[in-house]
Amino acid sequence: xxxxxxxxxxxxxxxxxxxxxxxxxxxxxxxxxxxxxxxxxxxxxxxxxxxxxxxxxxxxxxxxxxxxxxxxxxxxxxxxxxxxxxxxxxxxxxxxxxxxxxxxxxxxxxxxxxxxxxxxxxxxxxxxxxxxxxxxxxxxxxxxxxxxxxxxxxxxxxxxxxxxxxxxxxxxxxxxxxxxxxxxxxxxxxxxxxxxxxxx
Length: 200
Fold this sequence. Notes:
By secondary structure, the protein is mostly helical. The chain is 49% helix and 2% strand.
């Protein structure tokens, strides 16, 4: 059950068997299987922002789009992915996904306390709207396949409420979304290789 929910929450932009198409904003592709030309990288020689604990795929696709390039989904490559199969793993993953929202959307250069405070003050009353809109964006691709997916709306709402709380946490404490730089004022030293592998 939990693996099924994890797949529904994770792969709504990459549903197997759906037609090839352009992936428009606000959607992006997860980095599990991505093909690109090296000369199209936003930063030469680097694919992902090494500071990001999660959300590196969102930031990468945002940078690609800023360069006027198009993101395409193809159903032809087949990948095998082990989705999270426990309640703890599933909900922990949903929470982790929300932590990077502020940093990815507004950039590492916009971490001043007053900017984050203003965002948080606006986000708190808007949280119910966030939950409803993100649930709608997630469920829409599944509903194009079958109206039977309507039964998942309650759990999607719960998941996006958890993500909404994580958005606030990541906004108020950017260290939760970032690996620290040398001399950074955000967070303590961690082991990026282990953490990144676990969450990618």
